[in-house]
Amino acid sequence: MATNCLTLALETSCDETSAAVVENGRKILSNIIVSQVPVHKKYGGVVPEIASRKHIENVLPVVHEALEQARIKLNDISVIGVTYGPGLVGALLVGVSVAKALSFAQQIPLVGVNHLEGHIFANFLAHADLEPPFVALVVSGGHTSLVHVKNYNEFDLLGQTRDDAAGEAFDKVARVMGLPYPGGPYIDQLAKQGNDQSIKFPRALIHEGFEFSFSGLKSAVVNFLHNAQQRNEEINYADVAASFQFAVVDVLVDKTVQAAHQLGLDKIVLAGGVAANSRLQAALQDRTNQEEIAVYFPDLSLCTDNAAMIASRAYYQYLAGNCSDLYLNAVPSLQLGS
Ligand code: KG4
Ligand code: ZN
After folding, report:
1. Per-residue pLDDT for 37 more than 90?
2. Has residue 185 got a pLDDT over 90?
3. Comparing C-alpha atoms, which of 274, 310, 296, 277 is closest to residue 32?
4. CA–CA dist 183, 320 (Å, integer)
5. Which numbered atom of ligand 1 lies nearest the CA of 13?
6. Mean local confidence (pLDDT), 208-233
7. Ligand 1 midpoint to CA 74 (Å)
8. Atom of ligand 1 nearest to the CA of 119
9. Which of 97, 200, 236, 252 stands the most exposed, by the fewest C-beta atoms within 10 Å?
10. 182: cis peptide before it, omega within 30°?
11. Mean pLDDT, the chain, as a whole number?
């Protein structure tokens, strides 16, 4: 393997069009992200058809900018990585088509990347010393999964959500409270002024291994708000945000620490958009303070969707000889580790 392996990656699975250049899987040379959040905000969520169209408009300028900012030419690239699932099919297809075209035209090896594995690999960009094995908690708008990362290419799914993802619950509760989309960061901020003990919201599946469920909690918060509104009671929204967030974080932290204990692992890694949650980061660190367990999470900009994390994952797949051919297709419900 050449000492200097440059990966160009594309990420278009949801509402961010991103391209990045990463050196040897660990060093970011560029990471361009064009967010469609302002476009989808007025609909209160991502509109798939609009997302696909925006990706088509943005993808080539974003790839050019990523190469330009990294000061390299396409023929300096050794690997092309692209997210092929999970995600919105029309959105994924834009990245997959462009990556295949670039790979074919320049004869550069192509690597299809699982978006969730990419989120985990954001931590390799943020922490130069981080090595597997570890437990990863992947918490995003679409997923809540506990994963045993055995090495760079072997993952065991320990458990996942049976219904809503953690980020989805944040976004839905925020919407009912009249906060903008995506609501996670707004709840995080608002909760800082509230009392997390003021309302006792339910914790689901607390004794059921590593499975999660957040739809009951979401409904409990929505019912609480509706009942209070019907009775004309004044609502302290900061208390609701803090109590809801506490209920989510409590279960996430509990199960993640349990998984580390059960597997005898001394590292916990947070990944996905909800990994940016300040309460989740603090609670995990608090809980593991007295133990020999180190907690890692990516920098804020690497928590949410970006192509640098996809480049890191693609690099390690390439090293293992796990490349794709030009039949690579979008797989909207791709499972982790498959
Ligand atoms: O990973 P991501 O960018 O997209 C998906 O792959 O889903 O995650 C987006 C999710 C949204 O649900 C957003 O509300 C949530 O991450 N999020 C947060 C925070 N920042 C982003 N949730 C809670 N607290 C935050 N600070
Ligand atoms: Zn994501």
Report:
1. no
2. yes
3. 310
4. 39
5. 6
6. 95
7. 32
8. 1
9. 200
10. yes
11. 95
CA nearest neighbour of 113 among 182, 20, 240, 207: 20
Nearest CA to ligand 1 atom 11: 141
Residue nearest atom 14 of ligand 1, based on CA coordinates: 184
Question: Is 0.90 surpassed by the pTM of this model?
Answer: yes
pLDDT for the residue 207: 80
Q: Is the pLDDT of residue 1 over 50?
A: no
Q: Tokens 């989805």 — which residue?
A: 168
The whole-number average pLDDT for the span 219-233 is: 96
Domains and CATH numbers, the chain: 6-123+302-319 (3.30.420.40), 132-298 (3.30.420.40)
Q: In ligand 1, which atom is closest to the CA atom of 276?
A: 26
Strands 6-11 and 294-296: unpaired
The answer, yes or no, to whether residue 3 has pLDDT greater than 80, is no
Residues with CB under 5 A from ligand 2 (ion): 140, 305
3-state secondary structure (DSSP) of residue 1: coil
DSSP-assigned states of every residue in 231-278: TT----HHHHHHHHHHHHHHHHHHHHHHHHHHHT--EEEEESGGGG-H
